[in-house]
Amino acid sequence: MLERIKHMRSRTRSNLITYGIVIGFYVAVELLTAVDLLSSAFIGQLVPICAYVMLAISLNLTVGFLGELSLGHAGFMSIGAFAGVSFWVATQGRIPAWLGVLCALIIGAVCAGIFGLLIGVPVLRLEGDYLAIVTLAFGQIIVNVINALYIGIDSRGIHISLRDAASLGLAEGGKVIINGAMGITNIPKASTFTLGIVLVVLTLAVVLNLIHSRAGRAITAIRDNEIAAQSVGINLTKYKLMAFITSAVFAGMAGVLYALNFTSLVSRRFDYNTSITILMFVVLGGMGSIRGSIIAAAVLTVLPELMRSFGVESYRMLIYAIVLIAMMLFNSAPAAIEWRKKMAKKLSAAVAARKKPARSGSGKGAA
Which CATH number does the domain housing residue 164 bear? Predict the structure, then answer.
């Protein structure tokens, strides 16, 4: 019982630190903005930082805690973005702005979750490289479908075509929402840094509660050993789908947040490189580490701007690859693991040595 209480206290302390990092970042940015110490380039990156943090946390649920390699996160992000922004553009001037943004976020999350279910049922029966290949193909298929899609709205309702905008047959006063490869244009920007932080905290609350729940323990058990998990009665399909769909839902919501920060939206924003970038946040931050994913997503989103200022922006992917290989070696190489164990022992010994004189001194004083 005592051990359980200690574990709960440790978990609560760890969660509070994670929330504190996010809220502390928000307060620091607001204070620096108030005294005009932040550049306009950095301020323009605040919403993308929040979106990428949400994406990294949600993908970590699939890759870090479930142990399944998914390369289709940009596909779920694009589904949510186009579904939510289409609603936002179509309802401009008809409903209050706050309600439109809220509905857009919900629609983006639900649409991404539905596709997560449809893709997850067959795909999660695969393992390893096969799962990665299929999810990668899913992302590319979504991009190509959106490039060929034309959607408009008029007094008669919604019109869909795969030929061109003229074939929609819109009545007078009708509006083209998705215009093929041109995507969605003239989007009224609605994303704010405050909204982004609220969504990050919501993502954290859901994911942290999930991974520390009974379902979360089942998910990590599947990651550690599927056969052993199944032998004790864990439903593999149920818990795999739970993690995969939850991950897709928040990817869709992040896509809406990201898209509403721009005046135009094209499908090439969600290509293969985007999925790799999100996966890099998870790997560099540490698979299974929510706090690491947050820090990695924030740092690597700002890094390209710093590289641009130093004139090395064209080498961004090369630098990412080198850092990724270095992190994988640090996490997996036997020599690196042994070195980390030695450092942990030295640190614990140093902490124990500090505590002993304090205890002995207090004992003498009491005597």
Answer: 1.10.3470
The mean per-residue pLDDT over the stretch 169-190 comes to 88
DSSP 160-215: EESS-SGGG-PPTT-EEEEEGGG-B-SPPP---HHHHHHHHHHHHHHHHHHHTSHH
Q: Do β-strands 175-179 and 157-161 pair in parallel, antiparallel, or remain unpaired?
A: unpaired
CB of 151 closer than 8 Å to CB of 178 = yes
Whether residue 3 is predicted with pLDDT greater than 90 in this model: the reply is no
CA-CA distance, 105 to 284, in Å (whole number)?
Answer: 28
What confidence score (pLDDT) does residue 360 get?
46
Query: Is the confidence at residue 350, as pLDDT, over 70?
Result: yes
* In-domain check, residue 322: no
Q: Which H or E element spans position 150?
A: strand 150-154
| pLDDT band (50, 70, 90) for residue 345 | confident
Residue among 277, 246, 274 nearest 259 (CA) = 274
Closest Cα to residue 200, out of 58, 54, 301? 54
Q: What is the pLDDT of residue 15?
A: 87
Give CA separation, 5 vs 1, 10, 12, 88, 170, in Å.
6, 9, 10, 47, 64
Domain boundaries, position 301: 2-316
Q: 124 vs 309, which has greater pLDDT?
A: 124
In the chain, the number of structural domains is 1
360 in a structural domain: no
Residue 176: both structure tokens together = 């083209």
86 is a domain residue: yes
Sign of CA dihedral 298, 300, 304, 306: positive
Name the burial class of residue 142, with classes exposed (0-12), middle (13-18) and buried (19+) by CB atoms within 10 angstroms of its CB. Answer: buried
Residues 90, 50 contacting (CB under 8 angstroms): no
Q: Is 0.70 surpassed by the pTM of this model?
A: yes
Rounded mean pLDDT of 160-188? 88
- Which of these ranges, 224-238, 264-278, 290-304, 323-337, has the smallest mean pLDDT? 323-337
H-state helical runs in 311-333: 316-332
Place of tokens 């390699």: 69
